[in-house]
Design brief:
single chain; 66% helix; 0% strand; globular
Amino acid sequence: MTQRAASRIPPGLGRALSAVEETAESTKLWWGAAAAMAWRGGTRGRGAAVGGLAALVLAQVASNGVGKRLADRPRPPREWVPHDEVDDRPDSSSFPSGHTAAAVAFTAAVAPTWPAAGALCAVPAALLAVERVQSGAHYPSDVATGAAIGLACAWLVRHAPRPVPRDRPWGSRARP
């Protein structure tokens, strides 16, 4: 499946996928999206941004800090990838895809708070997942596991206990 994905993507689409990956490198796409949401989205935008970034950080720790250290899986063989994208891949473990985990975590955490922003984030998140296989950086199972980690982290952030109840305004005190 990895060989087919790497060889069947038309060159124009491959360049577009590479551009998305470059923008998402070091999670800068998601931090930029969070900044835009916080700036233009009012209270809802700030809530979506905070939730998305919290899930992203948790997914990065789970995938890159724990998963890659436990699995230590080699990247797909270079000869499987018939283009020069293979030269730009990291040397770290292939399993799981940290890029995909971060993208899915951010998107899945944003979507319940601001569905339109979540739908917009889903487009580059999906393209990024395809790019990770097409570029030879990951096997499909690495990407699928990264997506599952991202979904789990978004769920955990969404269901984490809140220090202040949501229905209580900031700074108000309970009256006896």
